[in-house]
């Protein structure tokens, strides 16, 4: 599965210079940005715990810098935009000064592939080139590279990141195990590690680690984490004892390789405080590897801003006793998952609606809004009659976006297609849907958030009797095959399965505890209900969990009403080609199908199907 490549937008117009940031309103629809939430938002449950050392964490923002703008549940809870976040950071820094404590800002990567602001650039543009300019305005202390930074090497992506973004955060953009090859020379994209002193004089050593990702483009290298910790530079970097190891990285804090890094540091420094800030699996998660460490992961898509505080001893002076009780007793950590909206931000900074905004925050908001206009993101395809969700409605059902796509495929792929006369079955994988489709205007930005993969469609001509067995066979693939598929997808950076497990788990827990009736009758609003391995309640605002329904790996259009021997078009998304051919050869034995039998079906890409349908049916 590919993410939007500039290839799909080939063209030679040079755009994206600042002087193109003029407001255009040819497509000025009712879809105005909800700068101030119209829904009544519940304030957080309790103030944050400030300690001597505090960190604000973002991860997997994927271009969601204008916040979540839909009015359906639970979107308004995440309506804060990056300008609001900037104002929040300004006020929090002020509070840190008043309290005379340390406050750092860190990010764990995946800056693009997710919204029109990063991916909706005009022909000739560069992915995330404009949105990153806003990201760069935030005073991040440490940033780590994500796998989404590595899908496309050339001038448009990693190389551009290397040239423009990295130098903006001198020494603080970390890629401990990720190299880029420039002019034939392999070198770290950012820095492998950094050492710095905080305002309060604490000595910090930081790494920026990427999970064992294998879907990276040529001319980039990802070194397995287990090999990285054996490098001599690594030993050198961690040798000297700092006041804190701040390990940032694009790697889930559970079920991944953080213990490898943690143990390597602990082998040298048995009691030095360690903070880990992870990412990638898009969930809220936390654990404590030992009594003097904590590992936090702060969700996705600017639906979560993470907070961690630790009661660290004062900076070392060099004259401490080697084993004072202070240096071995458990450290008190706290963590919190904030819903990013103005109500949350105002609550925690003690500001009101009229005092909260800073001129700098407002300028970021305005700049992002102008970028949305420049990219024509509110170009309207049609108006969605109701919400279509990935897992909040059963499949098949009217409210399932997967059912919608099963209906959309036979329409959108046959427009202007000479094969329209042939009966067909069309199959895609459910993972090609990345976000829910909410009621109301369905615009260019929504198309990019719901279906961001620019996969194409292929077909084989197959007797109906065989074609009709392929979808169920794909979904009933044996446990081994499914595990292989999962492993392949995971290595390539596909995380939706882990995210869905998390959603399923919170719905299951709620059902167990409250039963279906209480849940519906409760006074809580919908959202994430996190149960992690850290002490106390992590969610800043209590919620009831969203409904959850399991979904199949593959979905298909309705079978045509034809005889068994009618030869039909078996249309499928290119990404599943080899798997589909394998299945097809297992459900029939009349012919051995090979890749040579496969033909392109249409020029229409997976990114375009919903827009084509909406233009025809939702107006
Ligand atoms: C970068 O790669 C894309 C997709 O592979 C290609 O369309 C584009 O022309 C390349 N750009 C440059 C400057 O090489
Ligand atoms: C979440 O959004 C819903 C729907 O608009 C709203 O009623 C609720 O108050 C929000 N909750 C929070 C915690 O902001
Ligand atoms: C990879 O790097 C080599 C040497 O620097 C260069 O010749 C080649 O074009 C690069 N490949 C891509 C896809 O950019
Ligand atoms: C990364 O770059 C460094 C510095 O050029 C080099 O020593 C190292 O071998 C490279 N690592 C990989 C995995 O390519
Ligand atoms: C310190 O923390 C560890 C790990 O979280 C825990 O097992 C241990 O009981 C704690 N010790 C004290 C004295 O609280
Ligand atoms: C907050 O301020 C904005 C701008 O001044 C205003 O439009 C909005 O109505 C205010 N909202 C509330 C809840 O007071
Ligand atoms: C689903 O939509 C169809 C067509 O609009 C309608 O006839 C049917 O009643 C709907 N089903 C449910 C359960 O709402
Ligand atoms: C189909 O062809 C018409 C006429 O050439 C064109 O206006 C329309 O955009 C095409 N639709 C698609 C989906 O390619
Ligand atoms: C929900 O109801 C409970 C019990 O009536 C009450 O204690 C709690 O404050 C309510 N919560 C909110 C957010 O209104
Ligand atoms: C399927 O086609 C047959 C023969 O043309 C017809 O008799 C039957 O009613 C059709 N069934 C449906 C469900 O359309
Ligand atoms: Zn991500
Ligand atoms: Zn990722």
Automatic annotation (TrEMBL):
Gene3D superfamilies: 3.60.21.10, 5'-Nucleotidase, C-terminal domain
Family matches, as InterPro entries: 5'-Nucleotdase_C_sf, 5_nucleotidase/apyrase, Calcineurin-like_PHP, Metallo-depent_PP-like, Nucleosidase_C, Pesterase_C1039, YHR202W_N
Superkingdom of this protein's organism: Eukaryota
Signal peptide as annotated in the record: 1-15
Record-linked Pfam families: Metallophos, NadN_nucleosid_C
Keywords: Signal
Transmembrane segments: none
Name this protein carries in UniProt: Calcineurin-like phosphoesterase domain-containing protein
Domain (Putative 5'-nucleotidase C-terminal) ranges: 387-580
Keyword Zinc: no
Annotated source species: Mycena chlorophos
Lineage, opening ranks: Eukaryota, Fungi, Dikarya, Basidiomycota, Agaricomycotina
Ranges where the Calcineurin-like phosphoesterase domain occurs: 54-283
